[in-house]
Amino acid sequence: MFAKLALRNVRRQISNYLIYFVTVALSVALLFAVNNLSYSDRIRQLAELSSDMKSMFNMVTVLSGLVTALVLSYATGFMLKLRKKEFGMYLTLGMTRRNIQALFACETWMLSGLALIAGMGAGLVIFQLLVALFSSIMELPFSISAYSVKGIALTLAVSVGLFALSSLASVRYLKKVTISDLLKEEAAERSEKHPVLWCILSVVTLAGLIGCLIITYQNLMAAFHNEDGVILLLWLATDLVMIFLAHFTLSRTLAGMLLRSKRLKNRGTNTVVLRGLSGKMTVNSLLIGALATLLVFAVGMSNVAFCEKIFSDLSIKQDCPYDVMAMFDLSEEHGVSMEEGIQIVEQYSPIISQIDYQLYSKGETTLCSSIIGYDLMEWTDKYMPLSQFNALLTGCGYEPLTLKDEYLLFTTVQGISDVDFSDKSVTLNGKTYSWAGNSTFYPDFARREYMYFIIPDEAVAGMPVSDVCAAYTLADHRPDAMAMLKDLTYVQKTSDGEDERCDFAIQEAWRLFRNANAGTLIIGTLYVSTVFVCMALAILSLKTLSTLDDERRRFAVLYRLGADGKTQKAALFKQTGAFFLMPFALPLILTVPLGMIFGKVYEIWNFAGLSGQKAMETAALISLVLAGIYALYFFITYRIACEQVVCLGTETRGAGTRVQ
């Protein structure tokens, strides 16, 4: 009996359940896709490159599961609130609480089961799309991937667990709630008190938000020089707080202040729209602030993820500019000699060109003593002859460097690059060389050295060689890098035990490693961000639909005053759109300055030009995705509201008679 009644109720309430159904189905689809990706053969193979990949996917699943559980609880609470008068009537007519609990649980499980099936079906497609995205990031050919039994089982287990928790929460509520609580009317909405005060607070919080964003940008730029990220993180947290406060104060005052404009409110149906917004914003200001903060966090993380991929692509040639690079410190023992390494490399691809170069050192600290902590790092002054450095530069397509009685510091560490060596000169072979500046612009030809000094050739005459190096260009630029790396790696005994070591850098291995990390970050962040955005918009939709009774009475009055269906729909469109737009506008707008900021970051990292364009393209892509999700939820919410609110005549529907 309960199953038939539950099925009838689900059919009758299908429009009200639609947002719940779509949100659950999307959550299950994304969960299914990511779980299958984390257990796929391709991910297991690439996990050898990045040990954090599997843990990253597991963390994403847990985090998104928690967020989904919260929203499902909220959605279930909304459905209870929507139908509490109906349940109150059931109790009054003699049904037991156990009967009502069973009825509502049966309805919830029916809808959740349908959403689970739909979500799993959509997940089949989304999984292949994620595989295609990951293959594109890894620059590997795409092929249809098999689905994982473990991934499917994990999705079912997590989904059923979330549904069970949500159902238990509703059963507990129905067990304790009184009949009077179920039947009583909701408190009427009140206009916002002290509108002038809230207006002042809105201006103050907006100004504070702009100031915090400017200071955060300044600290971001400074962090690349002093490498102190603690202050930057504090300001980022402050930005999120200010975003919450700005939306909280604006939502409490905006509609009320607009109502004070006689010219605006007397135009068309603006009075009805603004009064409806005023009540919603007052009640839901905390929710709007929280959702806006969540959306900004999702936008920021999406930008970071995509820009990580751009940075990876641009930085590979900086970190390992040649196909294979060797560096041997002569003061250390090596398990694989340079000659043995060359033989191993040629097993995978012929070497078509080779550039030999060296680092020289007398063990002095004349120059590096300007670096704080140099003694703890046991750094000494190491020099590379200008002719060898230029040979490496021209092989990478750079213009040769010119030095005249000068030395240039090269480093990959921004903090070292900021050190002033203007008071430091060095005398070698009876000739004094002055400081020509510091550079992080050129590729890194000595990957194990934090810094070295480029100096004219005559300065190193007779100086001991400290490191023997070579750069190789291969006939096949993309050999089997993982197998080559494995053959070149050896185990070295240290004071702490045994450690794996390789004296060769392989560009293709760097590319795979960077792309694996970037791909994991992008997919994980996209998943979390999409779930966050969907959850935020689902809550907005449910909050909009929870006030339909009040809207129905308001629009009935509007109908009696002569407003036709078209006029009512236009008013409802503006009211619903404004409510949706409030927490969504700032996150969408922020994609542009975030793109500009990342473009500036690339310039600091010497990736100017194309990098700025890529950053803005990324920002535009994220904006389009956000706008698409927003449009989906807004359209569903607006259509449901139109069916329930717009008055066209007198009709009896459901529990009572209403003007339609």
TL;DR of this structure?
The chain has helices spanning 2-12, 14-38, 41-46, 52-82, 84-92, 97-138, 149-176, 179-183, 195-226, 229-259, 262-265, 270-319, 338-348, 374-377, 386-395, 414-417, 481-488, 507-545, 548-560, 565-604, 610-645; strands at residues 324-329, 351-360, 383-385, 406-411, 426-428, 431-439, 451-455, 465-474, 490-494, 497-501, 504-506, 650-653, 656-659.
Task: Describe the model.
- A five-stranded mixed beta sheet has the order 3-7-4-6-5.
- 67% of the residues lie in helices and 11% in strands.
- It is of the alpha+beta class and 660 residues long.
- The protein starts with a helix and ends with a strand.
- Helix 1 (2-12) packs across helix 6, helix 4 packs parallel to helix 18 (507-545) and helix 12 runs antiparallel to helix 18.
- It has helices at residues 2-12, 14-38, 41-46, 52-82, 84-92, 97-138, 149-176, 179-183, 195-226, 229-259, 262-265, 270-319, 338-348, 374-377, 386-395, 414-417, 481-488, 507-545, 548-560, 565-604, 610-645, and strands at 324-329, 351-360, 383-385, 406-411, 426-428, 431-439, 451-455, 465-474, 490-494, 497-501, 504-506, 650-653, 656-659.
Shape: elongated
- Overall mean pLDDT stands at 77
How is the largest sheet built, in terms of strand order?
3-7-4-6-5
**Sheet with most strands:** 5 strands, mixed
Rg calc? 32 Å
* Range of helix content: 55-70%
**How many E-type strands?**
13
What fraction strand? 5-15%
Please tally the helical runs, counting DSSP H or I stretches of 4 or more residues. 21
* Class based on secondary structure composition and strand pairing: alpha+beta
Distance between the termini: 33 Å
Low-confidence stretches: 650-660
